[in-house]
Write a structure and sequence with these properties.
The structure is a single chain. This protein is an all-alpha fold and about 190 residues long. The protein has two domains: about 110 residues, Serine Threonine Protein Phosphatase 5, Tetratricopeptide repeat, CATH 1.25.40.10; about 55 residues. The chain is about 75% helix and about 0% strand. The protein contains ten helices and no strands. Helix 3 runs antiparallel to helix 4. The longest helix has 17 residues. The radius of gyration is 25 Å and the shape is rod-shaped.
C-alpha cells in the first residue's frame, strides 16, 4: 500500500497524462477495485516508468484480498507478478511466504523469507519467521541458527529471546540420557 501512496503523491511534472491515470489507479486501489488499479498503473507505467512500483503494489493489494478470501493460488500468482515487476521488494516475498505458510508449503515459505532477508538484510522479522517454521517442523538445529541470526541483529528482541529459551528447553529434553553406572561399593575383606 505504501507504493500506492507514493504513486498518488508523485509530482505532477513530466507526463501529466500518466500522472492522471496513476491518480485514478490509486483511487481505484483505495476503493478496493484491484483490477482497475492494476490496469491503470500498467497504463501509467507504459507512459512513465516511475509508476511501475504502483503496478507491483496493486498486484500485492489484490493478492492480500485474494488470500483473505482463501483464494490462495490466485494470491500466489499475483504476488509472483509483483515480484517480477520489482524483485527487490522484500514485502512481496514476505506476503507470498505468508500465503505459502497458510497452505503448508513451508519449503517455499522458507525460500521466500530468505529472499526477503536478502532484500532487507537488517530486518529481524524474516529470521524470526524462518525460526518459527523450523521450530514448527521440529528442526531444532535450523531453528536455533535462524534465531541466533535474529539475535545478532537485535540481541534484545523479545520474540527471539523467548524462542531461544524455549528451544534450549526442547533441546535439553531431547538430549540423550546418559546412564552412568553407579560404582559398586568396595568389597571389604572379612576378618
Amino acid at each position: 500500500m505504501l507504493g500506492l501512496a507514493a504513486a498518488q503523491a508523485a509530482p505532477q511534472e513530466g507526463n501529466s497524462e500518466a500522472a492522471k491515470i496513476a491518480r485514478e489507479a490509486s483511487q481505484a486501489a483505495k476503493d478496493g477495485d484491484w483490477n482497475k488499479a492494476i490496469d491503470g498503473f500498467r497504463k501509467a507505467a507504459e507512459k512513465d516508468h516511475k509508476y511501475t512500483q504502483g503496478v507491483g503494489a496493486a498486484y500485492s493489494g489484490r493478492a492480500v484480498t485474494e488470500a483473505n478470501d482463501q483464494r490462495f493460488q490466485e494470491a500466489l500468482a499475483d504476488l509472483a507478478e509483483a515480484i517480477k515487476i520489482n524483485p527487490r521488494e522484500a514485502r512481496f516475498y514476505e506476503q507470498r511466504a505468508a500465503v505459502e505458510v497458510r497452505i503448508n508449503d513451508y519449503d517455499k515459505a522458507l525460500a521466500d523469507y530468505a529472499e526477503a532477508s536478502k532484500a532487507e538484510p537488517g530486518e529481524i522479522k524474516y529470521h524470526n519467521y524462518r525460526a518459527y517454521i523450523y521450530e514448527t517442523r521440529g528442526d531444532l538445529q535450523n531453528a536455533i541458527g535462524e534465531n541466533d541470526a535474529a539475535l545478532k541483529i537485535n540481541g534484545k528482541n523479545k520474540e527471539a529471546l523467548d524462542r531461544k529459551q524455549r528451544l534450549l528447553k526442547i533441546q535439553a529434553l531431547n538430549a540423550p540420557q546418559t546412564n552412568t553406572p553407579v560404582p559398586a561399593p568396595p568389597k571389604t575383606k572379612k576378618p
